[in-house]
Amino acid sequence: RKEVEQDPGPFNVPEGATVAFNCTYSNSASQSFFWYRQDCRKEPKLLMSVYSSGNEDGRFTAQLNRASQYISLLIRDSKLSDSATYLCVVTPYNNNDMRFGAGTRLTVKP
Amino acid sequence: EAQVTQNPRYLITVTGKKLTVTCSQNMNHEYMSWYRQDPGLGLRQIYYSMNVEVTDKGDVPEGYKVSRKEKRNFPLILESPSPNQTSLYFCASNRASGANVLTFGAGSRLTVL
């Protein structure tokens, strides 16, 4: 079983839609969780950290479910500019050993 | 501007011809790391370094070497490249304390024929 698994998609949604991605992780001792965004042919950039109580940043909401070992990302009111690949990142062993999921590709269409 | 700079951005080479991909950061970060990204596999860590003269293997270190003689530089060396090392490579850095947010370089696309 992979340490971090994501649905690769692609998710094709119309502008204004709400879309959610899940990511599961295998090590229950994982400490830190993040979502990174990667545009085509560019480097990944931090979108948001995921906190135990859940957190929101504008149209983006991240949640952590430790019991079921998954994190989620919800995007409300999708914009064309949200089209990207979203990478789930987990630190299963220590805070500097970051394991990446293969990414979920999102395309927002007019 | 705070950044991680890697070179070359694109390289086509032949099997067995040694090459080095340079990486430099100007943020005084303690930690630096190299990843490769392949379709369907995501980013996999090749090597990382927690400080000068301290390096360790990541998940896929075979065929690669690194060095950390100065805090700002972390070159990736392919002594004898093979076609299975054709990939997109990213260098990243982060602070030792606080939020461990990775700052990535723009990537180096390497093709080994």
What descriptive keywords fit this protein?
A: 110 residues, mainly beta, six-stranded mixed β-sheet, five-stranded antiparallel β-sheet, 0% helix, globular, B: 113 residues, four-stranded antiparallel β-sheet
Helix content of chain A: under 10%
- What is the CA-based Rg of chain A, rounded? 13 Å
- Number of helical regions of chain A: 0
The H/E string of chain B reads EEEEEEEEEEE
Largest sheet of chain B: 7 strands, mixed
Distance between the termini of chain B: 36 Å
The parts of chain B where pLDDT drops under 50 for at least 5 residues are none
**Which sheet architecture does the biggest sheet of chain A show?**
6 strands, mixed
- Biggest protein-protein contact in the assembly: A-B, 22 and 21 residues
Oligomer type? heterodimer
Please provide the count of β strands of chain B.
11
**Beta strand count of chain A:** 11
3D architecture notes:
The complex is a heterodimer of chains A (110) and B (113). Chain A is built from no helices and 11 strands. Chain A is mainly β and 110 residues long. In chain A, strands 2, 4, 5, 9, 10 and 11 form a 6-stranded mixed β-sheet that branches. Chain A has a 5-stranded antiparallel β-sheet with strand order 1-3-8-7-6, with no helix packed on it. In chain A, β4 and β5 form a beta hairpin. Chain A is globular. Chain B is built from no helices and 11 strands. Chain B has strands spanning 4-7, 10-13, 19-25, 31-38, 42-51, 54-57, 65-66, 76-78, 87-94, 103-104, 108-112. In chain B, strands 2, 4, 5, 6, 9, 10 and 11 form a 7-stranded mixed β-sheet that branches. Chain B has 113 residues and is an all-beta fold. The A-B interface holds A 4, 8, 32, 34, 36, 41-46, 49, 87, 91, 95-98, 100-103 and B 31, 35, 40-45, 48, 50, 90, 94, 96, 99-102, 104-107.
Short description:
The complex is a heterodimer of chains A (110) and B (113). In chain A, 32% of the residues are buried. Chain A has no helices and 11 strands.
